[in-house]
Amino acid sequence: MKPLRASWRGLVLLTLAGAMTPADAYTPVSGNLSGVLHWTLSSSPYWLTGDAILLPGASLTVDPDVLVQATGNYTLIIAGNLSVAASADHPVTFTSRSLPLGGWGGVHFAPTSRSTLAGAVFSLANDNVTIDGARVSFTDCKFLSAARDGAVVYNSAQVNFRGCTFADCGRRGLYLETVYPTGSVSNCTFRRSGEYPVFLKANCVGMLGTGLEFLGNAYQEIAVSTSAAIDLQRDQAWKPQAVPLNLVAASSDPLTIPAGVTLTLRRPLALICKRMNVEGRLVSGLTGSGKVMLTGPSSTPGSWEGIYLSPGAEAELLATRVFYAATGITCPSARLTMTNCKVAGSRDDGVNVSGSSQITLDGTNLAQSGRYGLRLVGALTGSVNNSTISSSGDFPVYVTANNVPLLGTQNGYRSNAKQAIGVACEAEPDVTTSATWRNQGIPYDLTASPAGTVLSVGTGATLTLNPGTTVYGGSVHVHGNLRALGVPGHPIQFLPAPGCPG
User: Does residue 2 carry a pLDDT above 50?
Assistant: First the structure.
């Protein structure tokens, strides 16, 4: 087929009168389009009478108020450069003519395309726009009434959507289909999507900027797929959004932050998760107002697995909520810092720290854990201060004797099944260097672990008990030094554990 010139014009024959009038004039378009092309209002509408392709190296400028209509199941393929400089009052419209919804193939941007569009309207296609590895910028554009998706982006595309509207799409407003696209989505509105307003791979969530609005969608959530072999390939900041990020909408796989990668969660932001594996670094809530919420698909304890820090990983959490996990945070030989956070509704433990971890808790609330609010075992460093542990199903804190000094000041314990600090005395000796046990307001119970109820203070070590400290059960064997610093009104007490004979 010879290349068609955009200036060609066809006429529609009126079957009754056999006459031709200017109102019936149109410009037919199909086949290969090459060279420098200009579609003008005077030649509008332009009818796709077959598939049409703007060839690589070709350019097409479309003027405001031009109407492009598909007359059949045809696609306009842009392999060259398309330029549209229109506005909401004088848009360029790409749509169909007398076809059912989804009756045409929409506009397809091929990998060789470098295009800029402002004030364009796309409607009534199967997918209104597809961007395959192209570089395309959309400003104040509208993607309306697609049978499936308003816009689909895949492969190594670079795409920007600014101030765009996605409305009444049968499936999704915007679908970022692979892990490779880059660019941004900002100040856009998503209305009345048949499923999720936005569906994207985890590696693309960083493209979502601020100013996004979500109204009347079937699911008022952003669907995030975690099914890629590597979920995050680079450092990302996930920005505040008005609706949750649903990480279980597309797969049951965990979100994994690989070693060497930092994921930053900015508040306010809510994530619905299956499990979060941190092999690199998680930074949550350090900027913005409000909270970061990490939760499962339901308010049932154990509805998700929680945050797991791999050995060598790091998590720095501020104003972050972790709700309804099996164990809220598991930290074996990692670094965990929590400030003004809350972990609640865990099926097992709120925070479980082991190995050679470093843990810092300050102003943090651990509530309604099925077993322990805080479990501290291993060779740990750090501190727990100004924190509250309440409504635990067992001890609020289960701690090996060597880690008791991590419990600092101004901690509170309320309504736990066992109102004592459960101390496991499983080593010989338990205290190998000088240590201080601070008065926590509740006793230390040496019978927490049946494997060891004898607290052994090693040779050369000094154990200091601060005024008002109470020790339940077991026994204390001192090979080094014991300093029990009781004062009037705040004695040191050694008592049998509740239920044990005196």
Answer: no
Helix/strand/coil percentages in the chain, nearest 5: 5, 45, 50
Cβ atoms within 10 Å, residue 329: 29
Percent of the chain scored above 70 by pLDDT? 94
pLDDT digits (tens, 9 = 90+) for 65-120: 999 999 999 999 999 999 999 999 999 999 999 999 999 999 999 999 999 999 99
Mean pLDDT for the stretch of residues 43-54: 98
447: left (phi over 0), alpha (psi -120 to 50) or beta: alpha
- Of 187, 192, 152, 199, nearest to 169 by C-alpha is 192
**CA-CA distance, 169 to 146, in Å (whole number)?**
5
pLDDT higher than threshold 70 for residue 20: no
Q: Which amino acid is at 42?
A: S
Residue 8 contacts by C-beta under 8 Å, 6 or more apart in sequence?
A: 27, 28
> By C-alpha distance, which of 38, 141, 17, 165 is closest to 86?
141
Q: How far apart are the C-alpha atoms of 420 and 248, rounded to whole Å?
A: 38
* CA angle, 242 then 127 then 90, to 5°: 80
Measured over all CA atoms, what is the biggest interatomic distance in the chain, rounded to whole angstroms?
A: 115
The amino acid sitting at 432 is T
Query: In angstroms, how far is CA 309 from the centroid of its own chain?
Result: 17
How does 67-83 read in b/e, with b if 16+ C-beta sit within 10 Å? bbbbbbebbbbbbbbbe
Instruction: Write down the pTM of the prediction.
Output: 0.91
Instruction: Classify 407 as helix, strand or coil.
Output: strand
Q: How many angstroms separate the Cα of 93 from the Cα of each of 41, 118, 147, 402, 422? A: 12, 11, 17, 72, 70
Is the pLDDT confidence value at 468 over 60? yes
d(CA 409, CA 350): 20
Q: How far, in Å, CA of 454 to CA of 426, rounded?
A: 8
pLDDT in tens, 22-41: 457 999 999 999 999 999 99
The H or E element that residue 74 is part of is none
- pLDDT tens-digit map of 413-464: 999 999 999 999 989 899 999 999 999 999 999 999 998 899 999 999 999 9
- What CA–CA distance (Å, rounded) separates 494 from 465? 11
